[in-house]
Specification:
CATH class of chain A: Alpha Beta
Distance between the termini of chain A: 38 Å
Structural class of chain A: alpha+beta
Radius of gyration of chain A: 13 Å
Number of strands of chain B: 10
CATH topology of chain A: Alpha-Beta Plaits
CATH superfamily of the domain at 14-219 in chain B: NADH-ubiquinone oxidoreductase 51kDa subunit
Structural class of chain B: alpha/beta
Mean pLDDT of chain A: 81
Shape of chain A: globular
Strand content of chain B: 5-15%
Number of strands of chain A: 4
Mean pLDDT of chain B: 93
Oligomer: heterodimer
Amino acid sequence: MSEVRLVLDAARCDGHGICALRCPDRISLDQWGYASVDPTPLQGRRMSRRARNVVAACPNGALSIADAAARGAGSPATHTKGSDISGGGR
Amino acid sequence: MSFVGLAGDPGTRLLAGPAADAGAESLAAHHQRLGRLPSLLAIDELTASGLTGRGGGNFPFVRKLQLAASRRGTPLVVVNASESEPASRKDVTLLELRPHLVLDGAVLAAQWLGATQVVIYLHSARTPSTNSVMAAVAERRAAGWDGPVTLTAVDAPQGYLSGESSAVVAVLEGRGAVPSLRPAPVAAAGVGGRPTLVSNTETYAHLGLIARFGAGWFRSGGPARSPGSTLVTLAGAVARPGLVAEAVGDVRIGDLLAGPGGLSAAPRAVLLGGYAGSWLDGQTAWSLPVDRGWLASAGTSLGCGLVAVLGRSACGLAETARLLDYLASQSAGQCGPCVLGLPELAERFASLVDGQGSGRHLRRITELAVSIRGRGACSHPDGAVQLAETALEVFGVEVRSHARRGTCPGRTCTASSGLPVPAAPAVRATAVLAR
């Protein structure tokens, strides 16, 4: 099985903060209260189960579990300007 | 041979042909000058060319094309001509003067993909380029030039982010020009789930030449690491702001500025790649190569091809504050760190100009940068942070002088560098609740 990680769609996050209460070792809240997700792969069955629970807990559906190489806030694809296939295009 | 050329100059590639004042090159003149377009794109030749995207992404074009080809559904080809960077002119200039070269490349890509629809995504308010495209489409239709491929122009909404590829897809799906986090690149799944090849205007124009003259010829027009010639827009404190030039061969940024721009000495600073680009010290920038790959590896980017000059009489802090204010206003309003972080970043820079340069104030800017970077559904907030951080690196003298005296040494700090900041409203998603 390939590695998976938590992915946050920042456009959907309204800062309810439930995720950070449920999974504080993976999700923190920034100075404004918005979620910030640890992008490293999820290790072990217990961590995967907690991640699934935290995905279900977000009232806005802003969290998901995806392949470790997937795009999303915190992924290399959105971090490195100039290497993303979607391009700059402005 | 390395040089900087303008429209009509011999030896240029994209801009070869009639001079700028001759207007759009007709289909007949284009055909006579370059010969007929090959009926099929040679994919090996395209791979060998090393063509990368010219909108800022610098992504290998052939890989995007192959990704679109590998997915189910009828592909759609989009010429991204929105060029929403306020000071950039290269794409509208190319469309205005050489519309058929751009359309040739787009039609070739469509034919290779088995697509029958090409969309030209542009700002119709820019009348010279829009008229040129509309006339070119009519000429091609009348001549039956493109077989089953139909060409349609679509108006791009105003706003800095309207050309971001996921925003382009949103517009073509009938929604607002708002970026979104997509599980796959739009080339794999874009408009209505169809593979959607969204590429920059200049990229397609290169494709139209590669198909005719081959990979070897194309590569000889640029540095080894970033094959092909490159269009740039010169802006700010240059002789002719908005002038579009083509760098052929091994060209330095100083060659661009000393050539058609007419600068004789290194300026105070250069803003490279767009408003969400990076400031470089003038002396440093002067000797850097116009080489997308090299610049990216050096932590900067040619971006949309904007090379904007800050003269010695202008204040980099005041300019940065003004540009940050604009970038903050152009947020799509979706992601909290962008909605709340960018206005504060802009305000903090305005305070620096007003003389608040304390260590605490500067630490807060650094802290904001860390809180904002990588936190958006698109790269808009990252771009604003890059502008702010490079400003602090390059304008350290100005920061200290403003903190002591409220101005730069020997300047009034009210003069503008001449970089346009439009009053155009941003397209907004449903507002994020401020807290």
